[in-house]
Design a protein that fits this description.
Layout (H helix, E strand, L loop, with lengths): L19 E2 L10 E2 L16 H9 L8 H5 L9 H7 L6 E5 L4 H12 L3 E6 L12 E4 L5 H8 L4 E4 L9 H21 L4 E7 L10 E2 L10 H16 L5 E7 L2 E2 L5 H11 L4 E4 L5 E2 L2 E2 H13 L2 H4 L2 E4 L5 E2 H12 L5 E4 L1 H15 L5 H6 L5 E2 L2 H7 L7 H27 L1
Parallel strand pairs: 3-4, 3-6, 4-5, 6-7, 7-9, 8-17, 9-14, 10-13, 11-16
Antiparallel strand pairs: 1-2, 12-15
Helix pairs in contact: 4-9, 5-6, 6-7, 8-11, 8-15, 11-15
C-alpha cells in the first residue's frame, strides 16, 4: 500500500491542515487524528525545528501532513514548520546563512523571509541591503570561533554560502573555505543543529575524460578554489557520522538579482549596444543556473526528510546552450545587432597566467585549467531524489537577468530625471 493511502484526513476546511499522525514506537500502520488545528500555507517540509520537534515528540506525533500533500501524494514532505511553530505559539524557525551579504546569500535571505522564516546572516562584509532591519546580522568571519558560536545560537539549520573572494591568495582560500567550514561544522555538531547545507561547486570535477559529470565521479579540482571545495566536502562527509543531516550541493555558475562579474558586464554591453568577447570559439556548454532555482533546491534540503537530503547533489540548468549562443541571445534581445566576438584562447591564457603570478591571486587558475574542458553536470540525481527540476534553462535565466537589468536602469533614469526637475 502506498504511503499516501495510509493517511486519513480528519477535517477539511480552507487553510486548515487535514491531518493524520503516525504514533511513535508502533510497527503497524494505524493512524490517529491530530488534536489541534494547524494553519497550512502549503510551505511543506519534513523536519520539526527546535521546540516544535520537542512538542511533537512529547505528544507522540511522528509525522504531520497537510491536505495539499495528502491530495497530491507527496509523502516526502511531511510538515509545515513555520505554520506549526506559529500555531503552537513558538518562535519562527531561524536559519543561519553564512555569506549572507553576498550574491547567493542575500537571495537566500530573501527567499526564506518570504516563506516566513527568521534569518540570520554571518558575513565579514557589511550587510548593505534593504533587508538589514529584517535579517539578524552578525558581522564576523567564519574562521572566528567566537563569531560562529554567536551566530549558531538558536538556529534550526545552517546554509554555508560563504567563500573566499576570487582575488584571494591560495592561502586565504584554504583558510576561509576549509578552515571556516571546519569551524562551522564543529559548532553545528556541538549545538546539534539538525540541518547543514554546504554550497560547493561543479569545479570540483576539474578536467575529466568524459563530458557528463555525475556525483560519483572522482574529484580533480583545478586551482585553489576547487581544491578547497573538495576539502570542505570531505569535512562534511565525515561530519555525517554525527547523525545529523549534511547536504552538499555542487552548483554550476549562477545568474540572478545582484549578480556581478562577467554576466553584469554582458548586460551592460548589451544595453549599451556593444558586442561581447568570449574566450575561444564559445562552443563550450554553458550550464548556467538561475539563482531562484538554486534557492528552491537549497530550501528542499532544509525541509524534506533527512534520509533524502543527507547526500551530495549536482545542481545546474537542465537544458542549456553554448556560451556563444547564450550570450548572443542577450545581445539579440537588446536589438542593436551586435555579435559575440571570439578572442584567441592561447595568448589570452598566457596573459592570464602572467597576471596570476604578478598578483599572487588564484582568480585565473580555474579558467586556465579548464578552458578546454567541454563538460557539464548531470542533474538526474537531485531530480529523482528531491523531485527538483529547475524552472529556467540557461538562456532564459540570462534573459531574465538582462530584463531585470533594463528595468533597474529605467528606474534609475526616471529617478535621476525626477531629481533634476
Amino acid at each position: 500500500m502506498r504511503h499516501a493511502e495510509l493517511l486519513t484526513p480528519f477535517r477539511e476546511s480552507p487553510g486548515v491542515i487535514l491531518m493524520v499522525l503516525e504514533p511513535l514506537g508502533r510497527d503497524d500502520t494505524s493512524t490517529i487524528p491530530v488534536s489541534r488545528e494547524f494553519r497550512c500555507q502549503h510551505i511543506c517540509g519534513g523536519w520539526q525545528p527546535g521546540a516544535a520537534a520537542r512538542w511533537l515528540w512529547e505528544t507522540r506525533i511522528a509525522r504531520v501532513l497537510c491536505g495539499y500533500c495528502v491530495r497530491n501524494q507527496r509523502p516526502d514532505w511531511a510538515i509545515c514548520p513555520t505554520s506549526l511553530a506559529r500555531s503552537v505559539g513558538l518562535t519562527q524557525p531561524r536559519i543561519l546563512v553564512t555569506g549572507g551579504a553576498g550574491f547567493v546569500g542575500i537571495n537566500l535571505c530573501r527567499f526564506l523571509l518570504v516563506r516566513g522564516y527568521s534569518v540570520r546572516s554571518l558575513d565579514v562584509a557589511p550587510f548593505e541591503h534593504a533587508e538589514r532591519n529584517t535579517v539578524d546580522v552578525v558581522r564576523g568571519d567564519v574562521r572566528d570561533a567566537g563569531a560562529v558560536a554567536e551566530a549558531m545560537r538558536g538556529v534550526s539549520a545552517v546554509i554555508h554560502a560563504a567563500a573566499a573572494s576570487p582575488s584571494s591568495t591560495s592561502a586565504e582560500v584554504f583558510s576561509t573555505d576549509v578552515g571556516g567550514t571546519s569551524t562551522l561544522l564543529q559548532s553545528a555538531i556541538r549545538n546539534r543543529v539538525p540541518r547543514f547545507v554546504l554550497l560547493s561547486s561543479s569545479a570540483v570535477y576539474g578536467v575529466q575524460a568524459h563530458r557528463l559529470m555525475h556525483e560519483g565521479d572522482p574529484l580533480h579540482g583545478t586551482g585553489a578554489h576547487a581544491e578547497a571545495k573538495i576539502e570542505a566536502e570531505h569535512l562534511c562527509t565525515g561530519a555525517r557520522l554525527s547523525g545529523l543531516s549534511f547536504s552538499i550541493l555542487r552548483l554550476t555558475a549562477m545568474t540572478g538579482a545582484g549578480q556581478g562579474g562577467v554576466l553584469a558586464k554582458l548586460c551592460e554591453h548589451a544595453f549599451g549596444g556593444r558586442g561581447f568577447l568570449t574566450l575561444g570559439s564559445g562552443r563550450k556548454p554553458y550550464q548556467i543556473l538561475d539563482v531562484e532555482d538554486a534557492c528552491e533546491a537549497i530550501y528542499r534540503c532544509l525541509v524534506m526528510r533527512a534520509d533524502l537530503v543527507n547526500d551530495t547533489f549536482n545542481l545546474g540548468a537542465r537544458t542549456f546552450n553554448s556560451i556563444r549562443e547564450s550570450f548572443q541571445a542577450v545581445l539579440d534581445r537588446a536589438g542593436y545587432g551586435e555579435q559575440v566576438i571570439a578572442i584567441p584562447r592561447a595568448p589570452t591564457l598566457a596573459a592570464l597566467t602572467l597576471l596570476e603570478r604578478l598578483s599572487r591571486s588564484s582568480r585565473y587558475s580555474w579558467i586556465h585549467g579548464t578552458a578546454g574542458q567541454d563538460s557539464y553536470v548531470s542533474v538526474r540525481h537531485i531530480g529523482s531524489r528531491l523531485r527538483f527540476q529547475p524552472r529556467y534553462c540557461g538562456t532564459s535565466a540570462l534573459l531574465r537577468e538582462y530584463e531585470r537589468y533594463v528595468r533597474s536602469r529605467g528606474y534609475l533614469t526616471t529617478t535621476m530625471c525626477a531629481v533634476t526637475q
